[in-house]
């Protein structure tokens, strides 16, 4: 319990948590089931090259996404590059700046130019009107991002792309198990990309996938991710090695086994945070559409400095001193604020810049419990209640 400023660990008090509680910790899995799968792979001496575990993982991901095709890859960045190569993109691709740098880096690595667009401030996702304004004769695709699991405006973006004769794709790294208009994320646009990084709600140690209902596109991706073997028409790039290993698939399958339980735990964590902080002026939760399914992987809150008396970064410092390792979330800073983009093609994106300066990602996942959340929220409430004093004390050194 914090009673005055000197109780804050930032100013010499005792931390509220005994040990650092990190954000985006890997979710727990059934180790026995994982080791059984790994042993099976070792016994059968099939460890890579599209083995039985990878094929089973692809089938289960495709079923969850409601699509016919899934091509599992070694990571999601490679999946994005394979998608762009399979689509023969050139020139410019329109992407949000409010995303993990991999979205832009994947395009740049292939010699494409990412063109950053501003967001709809209500959703944090690409604004279709801004996208329409940004399209030029050099634009070859629109790549939307389902930010923190919230699907972007897929229908409007799809219409904008179709009106200009270019494809729409989606980076769905955060959004497996989520829906838009009742349809699972995975079946929108020509194709979508999932991430199965260790921090994601479905964890394959490291992994990704391209999902699509376009059979011909899936065949092309599958060939390209295996050195170009089986391509009907030779690719200029020849192909690459983007395959998922059997060990990663074993982990991914084991994570999928408990997907519903993980989402339920995440939802309980989100509800606990909301119950503790919903009435706190100056702290706003990143909204989810209550009519849709969501995986609740991230708990994102926005800090209004004018109301709280302290800015986002100072609140993070307060939390870190208390051993609550909250983070600037994925996408903060935004891509256009980072090199090589900041000096290469400077742009002003006011809605993006406002949001990324105000958001915090709080610890969640299956390793986080209700008592920890209560303590975290108690710190936040105290810091906000004394925001001006905390700011003044910090400035005094």
Description:
By secondary structure, the chain is an alpha/beta fold. Helix content is 40%, strand content 14%. The strands form four sheets. Strands 2-10-9-6-5-3-4 form a seven-stranded mixed beta sheet, with helices on both faces. A three-stranded antiparallel beta sheet has the order 11-12-14, covered by helices on one side. A two-stranded parallel sheet has the order 1-13. Strand 7 (179-180) and strand 8 form a beta hairpin. Helix 2 crosses helix 8, helix 5 runs parallel beside helix 6 (154-163) and helix 9 packs parallel to helix 14. The chain starts with 20 loop residues before the first strand and ends with a helix.
Short structural summary:
This protein is α/β, with parallel strands linked by helices and 397 residues long.
Write the layout of secondary structure elements.
Elements: E1 21-22, H1 31-44, H2 52-65, E2 69-73, H3 76-86, E3 92-96, H4 101-109, E4 113-117, H5 128-134, E5 139-145, H6 154-163, E6 168-171, E7 179-180, E8 183-184, E9 191-195, E10 208-212, H7 215-224, H8 246-257, H9 259-277, E11 283-285, E12 299-303, H10 305-308, H11 312-321, E13 324-325, H12 341-344, H13 350-356, E14 359-362, H14 370-385, H15 387-396
Parallel strand pairs: 1-13, 3-4, 3-5, 5-6, 6-9
Antiparallel strand pairs: 2-10, 7-8, 9-10, 11-12, 12-14
Helix pairs in contact: 1-8, 2-8, 3-4, 3-7, 5-6, 9-14
